Amino acid sequence: MPMNHLKDKTELKPSKNAVIKKANYLAEARYKLELPAQKILEPLLAEIHPEDDDFKRYTLRLSDLYDLLGVNNQKVETRRAVLTRAIHSLQQNLVKFTEYNEIRQEQLVAAAWLETTVIEWDADKVTLRISEKLKPFLLLLKERFYRYRWREVADFKREYSSRLLQLCKRYSATRRFNHGNENGLYLIQKTYELDELRLMLEVPPDIYTTYTGFKIRILDMSRHEVEEKTDCRFTFRGIRTGRKITKVEFTFFGDQVGAETPTETPGIPHPEPEEVTTDGVSRDLMRFGVSDYTIRKINANYTPGQINQGVEAACDYAAWLRKKKREEIKFPDTIIKKALEEGWTSAASRARRKLEEDHQKLTEKMEAANILKNLADRKKKLREEDREQEAKIVEEQETDRRAWMKEHSENYRFADDKTAYLLMSLPEKDRESLNEDSKKELEEHISQKITPEAEDFEQAHALTVGICLEVLSEQEVKATKKARENFFKGVREQGIL
Question: 1-155: what CATH class?
Answer without folding.
Answer: mainly alpha
